[in-house]
Amino acid sequence: MSEHLLEVRHLKKYFRLGKHKVLKAVDDVSFYLNEGETLGIVGESGCGKTTCGKTCIGMLDKTEGSVCYRGKEIHEMNKKEFFGFTGQVQMIFQDPYSSLDPHMRVYDIIAEGLRIHHLTTTKEQEKEQVYKLLKNVGMNIEYANRYVHEFSGGQRQRIGIARALALNPKVIFCDEPVSALDVSVQAQIINLLEKLKKERNLALLFVAHDLAVVQHISDRIGVMYLGTMVELGTTEQIMEKAVHPYTKALLSAIPIADPKEEKERQQILLKGDIPSSTEEIQGCRFAGRCPNAKECCMKKAPKIQEIEPGHFVACHLYTGGMENE
Ligand code: SF4
User: Fold this and answer.
1) 81 CA to centre of ligand 1 in angstroms
2) How close is the Cα of 253 to the center of ligand 1, in Å?
3) Is 225's C-beta closer than 6 angstroms to any atom of ligand 1?
4) Which of 316, 322, 323 for mutating ligand 1's site (highest number of atoms within 8 Å of CB)?
5) What CA–CA distances, in Å, run from 272 to 43, 269, 283, 301?
6) Which of 41, 84, 113, 145 counts the most CB atoms within 10 A of its CB?
7) ∠116-99-161 over CA atoms, to 5°?
8) pLDDT reported for residue 95
């Protein structure tokens, strides 16, 4: 049995668009997630990170590959096993405005999961649990009888987090959980997630387009580009020793707090358009925008390989693909 809590191998998720087009949203992605660990997945909008996360928690069927939770393939679980799995794996949504039902009181939003999974037997127990969850996310218990439109974005996201925690999950898929919030509130939500992660030994699959956000919360970071993982490593390896040209470009876009250093920061501006995920690309998907592209990059797609313990990269520059150039 796998030692990892969640293990994803060669995952593909394609969408058929009409008769002849196929959108390869996730195309051969592999990674694992350990108990109590945060894996950040970063990449531009449309790179497949949300589709990947949704496929990993069983919200979408896979096209190929495997997603194993505690050694069991989730897409082959029977009804009872899958019901148990849905209690262990929860999601926090990007948009706290549309992900909460405006017709429900906060109390019922949080209690719904407890009822479906029969986690409390009396009304008293349920109330105790809902109030505890509200306190856990820094909300006043008096808010329980209000409706979501009465709250700010940050408070709504706290309600979404309380709902996700209600089933006492082991994994939470956080889909851009702060991108719709004001910058001043983002840090509060990140700090809350970190606190809850430590208290509950939670594993977080944290998806975001902003590497600056991801680095604060992640133990390891994966960088996705056009449906594939181009670099994966510990947060230190990605932030200090990134090698993939795309990761380097993302890093160069992070503002520096020190005004003097910020003035000297040289941002790598990528030229060219991102190809469509429906296009058949023979070589490296990043070749059209890569400042280091060589002839072989147009012909052969680089495979992701380990270049030092725990540090993986998909680029011919580092995996021997340019030897004959
Ligand atoms: Fe750039 Fe070639 Fe590496 Fe792709 S394989 S990232 S085109 S150098």
Assistant:
1) 42
2) 19
3) no
4) 316
5) 17, 10, 16, 19
6) 41
7) 70
8) 87
Q: Answer yes or no: is the C-beta of 287 below 6 A from any ligand 1 atom.
A: yes
Q: What does the pLDDT average to over 84-104?
A: 93
Other CB atoms closer than 10 Å to residue 124's CB: what's the count? 9
Q: Which atom of ligand 1 is nearest to the CA of 284?
A: 4
User: How many angstroms separate the alpha carbon of residue 318 from the centre of ligand 1?
Assistant: 9
pLDDT in tens, 67-78: 999 999 999 999
Give the phi and the psi of residue 156 in degrees, each rounded to 5: -65, -40
Measure Cα distances from 282 to 21, 231, 296, 301, 302 in Å.
16, 19, 10, 6, 10
In one letter, which amino acid is 158? R
- Short-list 21, 155, 9, 166, CA closest to 74: 9
Question: Does residue 1 surpass a pLDDT of 70?
Answer: no
Whole-model pTM: value is 0.94
Q: What angle do CA 275, 277, 283 make, to 5 degrees?
A: 65
Query: Does 230 score more than 60 pLDDT?
Result: yes
The residue nearest atom 7 of ligand 1, judged by CA position, is 287
| Long-range interactions of 242-250: CB distance < 8 A, separation 24+ | 243/307, 243/313, 243/315, 243/317, 243/318, 244/313, 244/314, 244/315, 244/318, 245/286, 245/290, 245/291, 245/292, 245/315, 245/317, 246/270, 246/286, 246/289, 246/290, 247/223, 250/42, 250/211, 250/223
Going by C-alpha positions, the residue among 235, 163, 219, 187 that lies closest to residue 36 is 219
Ligand 1 binding pocket mutation candidate from 224, 270, 292, 307 (most atoms within 8 A of CB): 292
CB 178 within 8 A of CB 208: yes
- Per DSSP, 145 falls in state G
pLDDT above 90 (res 276): no
